[in-house]
């Protein structure tokens, strides 16, 4: 099947860091994602002051949007370059500190305190470190995860959300025999079995 043809494909953290170094980041959207605008009401569900998680965040401009609306944004990204570019491109002052629970990890926080970006692998996080979230914006995240790690990723995400949370997930449907990914092809049937 389509999904079958990508099952063994792996993109290493090193390769992701290289993409950032080479400015090979076609996935980054300067203008932000139209689907977040379209489904913002679903994400917020009339609530204010939410804690919103951005897995595999890159330098997604939507983090700034949501923070400006009064929400608390937490992201995780392996590339320190991406994290620093996020703050500098939005002229946001920040401080950086080690994360005691995760060796080698750093947390970059806007001086205003409402945007915290963890620079480490998402698999290093747990709810005891980052708490739980009311909302998730998953764009370029599940579809960027190596197919062999999807189960682990989904279990972690389920662990990181509150009971009454909203999770917006963007996926891409295409002929998986024509592109090796990422983004990987994640059929709807698999999303159902991963997230229930
Ligand atoms: N969500 C962002 C970026 C998508 S690209 C956007 O919408 O623009 C996927 C990002 O995940 C890359 O920036 C890559 O460096 C990062 N990444 C890949 N594996 C990761 C991991 N295990 N933990 C944290 N970040 C990771």
UniProtKB/TrEMBL annotation:
Keyword annotations from UniProtKB, A to Z: Cytoplasm, Methyltransferase, S-adenosyl-L-methionine, Transferase
One GO CC term, this protein: cytoplasm
E.C. no: 2.1.1.67
Gene Ontology MF: a single term: thiopurine S-methyltransferase activity
Binding site for S-adenosyl-L-methionine: 16-27, 56, 77, 121-122, 139
Sequence similarity: Belongs to the class I-like SAM-binding methyltransferase superfamily. TPMT family.
Protein name: thiopurine S-methyltransferase
High-level lineage: Eukaryota, Metazoa, Chordata, Craniata, Vertebrata
């Amino acid at each position: 099947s389509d999904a079958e043809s990508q099952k063994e494909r792996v993109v290493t953290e090193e390769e992701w860091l290289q993409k950032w170094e080479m400015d090979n980041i076609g996935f980054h959207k300067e203008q932000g994602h139209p689907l977040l605008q379209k489904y913002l009401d679903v994400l917020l569900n009339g609530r204010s002051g939410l804690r919103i998680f951005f897995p595999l965040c890159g330098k997604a401009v939507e983090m700034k949007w949501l923070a400006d609306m009064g929400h608390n944004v937490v992201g995780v990204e392996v590339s320190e370059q991406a994290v620093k570019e996020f703050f500098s491109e939005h002229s946001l002052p920040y401080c950086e500190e080690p994360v005691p629970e995760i060796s080698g990890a750093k947390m970059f926080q806007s001086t205003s305190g409402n945007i915290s970006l963890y620079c480490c692998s998402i698999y290093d996080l747990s709810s005891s470190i980052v708490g739980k979230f009311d909302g998730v914006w998953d764009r370029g995240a599940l579809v960027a995860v190596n197919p062999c790690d999807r189960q682990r990723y989904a279990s972690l995400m389920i662990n990181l959300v509150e009971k009454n949370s909203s999770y917006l997930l963007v996926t891409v449907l295409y002929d998986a025999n024509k592109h090796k990914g990422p983004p990987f092809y994640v059929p709807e049937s698999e999303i159902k079995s991963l997230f229930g």
